[in-house]
Amino acid sequence: MKKVLVFTVIILILSLLSVFAGDENNNRKSETQNTVIKGNVIDKSTGETLSGVCIKLVGTDLTAYSDLEGKFEFNNIKPGKYEITTSYISYENISVEEISHLISETCSLTIGLSPLKN
Q1: Largest Cα–Cα separation, the chain
Q2: How far is CA 91 from the centre of its chain?
């Protein structure tokens, strides 16, 4: 009877250890499965790309600037909902709200800016 009890306790302990190890591995996976938000910025009326536009990811300390082709990218972003704001000389500042993306998904968008009216 003692052998059966000891054997049962050992099996229970091993089962619990494997469950906890599985949870820990799942937590590590979700921490490392970050995504990318990328896009380009254009002049809304002409369709020309805009370089040097300041793009901020609200709620984080991340800022990007569009390159010579109007492209920008935020890497290693945790999945969720975000808001992006832009600022550029002689153009209206805009806010793109509720950008959401999932694990292993790249979010691509085009932001059209309008020139300021005199």
Answers
A1: 92
A2: 26
